[in-house]
Specification:
Length: 268
């Protein structure tokens, strides 16, 4: 199985959060406090984020794989000609039930003719919350309901965990709970790799959760010694394959945070 991990496009909260650091890269406590009281619980994509999502969809339709030396990529004959769609051979797209990932997945789903599958466990660290209470403490919200997702994103496959009361049941999730989800998702991906063989899937998810998931995959939880950072719509590719020497399971991290599809002005 080949996995493409993709961060969502720029969200409203991402845009608001850019003020947290000064022009020389220093942390601004006052700006951070303003951000925390201004951020929204389930932000949409900005105009820039929507452009990033459109370019991502074009890339997933047209890009040639980076590596073609083995069975890990589509045969070269499948890539010849200008009318080939979905050159990466992606067969399934998963996204979290958060608005920004639902929106990010939409252009790729349309251009590839794939119905995205909503996977609750790949939501962002923290859940659906804001800090707009009188004392600034976190306030949790239920997130989009099944009917709302189906109305805004026709054809998306809304799985278990999303109902007419929404899908988020907490306030603000702490990092250990996020890491626990990452462990579950990593285990499920290993199962999927055995089930679907050499299929190629894409997961549209979130920056901090991607860090937890990659750290889990590398067997480095718990720990904060390093951080996997991704630009908006940055792509990481992981191959679930086997060693050519002795056929034992092998995971190849082909690349991380790839943004070839973005112009310099759209890298956020």
């Amino acid at each position: 199985m080949i996995l493409y991990l993709i961060r969502h496009g720029q969200s409203l909260n991402n845009f608001l959060g850019e003020s947290v650091l000064t022009s020389d890269g220093q942390f601004d406590q006052n700006a951070y406090e303003t951000y925390m009281t201004s951020r929204v619980s389930d932000p949409p994509l900005t105009e820039v984020g929507q452009q990033q999502a459109e370019l991502l969809g074009d890339f997933l339709r047209e890009a040639h794989p980076k590596h073609r030396a083995t069975h890990d990529d589509p045969p070269e004959e499948e890539l010849r000609g200008t009318d080939v769609v979905n050159r990466l051979g992606i067969s399934r797209i998963f996204c979290s039930p958060m608005l920004r990932t639902l929106q990010t997945a939409q252009p790729a789903a349309t251009t590839l003719g794939i119905q995205p599958e909503v996977w609750v466990d790949i939501h962002e660290h923290g859940g659906v919350f804001d800090n707009q209470s009188a004392d600034g403490s976190p306030v949790g919200y239920p997130g989009l309901t099944r009917s709302q997702i189906e109305a805004q994103f026709p054809g998306y496959q809304v799985t278990d965990g999303v109902d007419e009361t929404g899908w988020w049941r907490g306030g603000e999730e702490d990092r250990p709970a996020c890491d626990a989800r990452a462990i579950r998702v990593a285990a499920r991906l290993l199962e999927m790799a055995k089930e679907i063989g050499d299929e190629r899937i894409a997961i549209v998810t979130h920056g901090t959760f991607m860090d937890s998931l990659l750290t889990t995959i590398l067997g480095r939880l718990p720990g904060n010694e390093f951080h996997f950072s991704h630009y908006n719509t940055g792509i990481t590719r992981i191959d679930y394959t086997e060693s050519w020497r002795d056929k034992t399971p092998l995971m190849l991290i082909r690349y991380t945070n790839r943004v070839d599809h973005l112009t310099p002005g759209l890298i956020t």
